[in-house]
Amino acid sequence: MNKIIKLSAVLLLMVSASSCKKYLDVQPVGKVIPTTVEDFRALLNSGYAQFPKHKSNLAFRTDELLMNNDEPSSAIFRDQYKWNDQNPDPNSREMPYGSFYTSIFYTNSVIADIEEKAGKSAATDQIKGEAYLLRAYNYFELLNLYAKPFNLATAASDRGVPISLAVDIETNYKPSSVEAVYTQIFADIESGRALMNTDNFAAGLNYRFTKRAALALTARVHEFRGEWANALKASQEALAMNSQLEDLTIVGAVSPNNYQSKENIMSMEDTFNADVSRSALMSPHLIGIYDQVNDKRFALYFGKAGGDYVSTKGNSNEFKISFRNGELYLIQAEAALKMGNSSLAQESLLALKAKRYTTAYFATEKTRVMALSNEDLMLDILKEREKELALEGHRWYDLKRYGQPELKHTVSGEVFTLLKNDPRYTIRFPQSAVQANPNLQ
Question: In this structure, which of 107, 154, 340, 356 has its CB flanked by the most CB atoms within 10 Å?
Fold first, then answer.
């Protein structure tokens, strides 16, 4: 793009040139240079706050939702629902791009300055470690939106996203390869984990990265790359620290994605926000995959509005979620089976099912699962993943990683089709980002 991005530490997260501000969309938080632990915690909190709500948008690209055409505000999601990234309506809501780099900018500032300005201590180590992990997560999400799925044979040449790591430098922001971005993600995870000293934050502060969240991120990254031994190791280490699951068979159990859930690991992301909740109905496909009588998730996840189903696991701060144990059990099951350990795969899957289905039904389900071939067991793990993690921002990525099937959406009687292996499974960079940075074309 040959645009110079010059970041000024003196002005604390203010951008020195208007073209830079247009590209990164960084908003200033003040002109006071941070010097204390509290200052840097506030700085990093801004990085957390800037992490985008993109998974709400992504839900419209999946087979989970129907467009609620009776809701006027649904028009902003119509192009997402039609997979129309080529020539969207100007009033459509773009997938985020600049906000990722705003979040990254805050992490870069913390990483660069915290030890020099606030000293080295357990507190500054924790904050700096969180910054590395938040930066890694930003790049992981950027890759999964705007790059092809990881392919070992082509990752070194597949186009990824730009990497920005430093404050107060001049650089040309050009997309790096998928493998180069993953190399940076792993480096940041390693640096972050080496500094972390907090296992858990109390409810209300659990939007922050911890040791457990670092392991959960590690497991997810390796899962997406098909590195099953490492995915298994990280998921087992995280579950060794806390393996609790919400028991939905008992009265008073909360939704597993509630920030106060006993299986919660980290609650940063608004994965099904109010705008989407108003604009969407549940698709017949999504409703149809549940046993409405015996699956205790159904009544927790969905409610009726007239003759339609709507979500009851979003549209509230209590349902912010990034990582939880339910996902880790499923990663452990999938990775174990890929590694040839069908017994552990069955054990992990059944441990989750035992907390989700009525007692009588589970007894039958256990017999069925134990008799499955490895091929059918994998299908069952993936189907359970679809049910367990519905509306939490996983489905688009799973469709993209697992076969890229054909999908059809209907808008005002017109059918729009996403073909099998359609190039639109890799989302185009938003037009506003391309206008600011021609290297993204």
Answer: 107
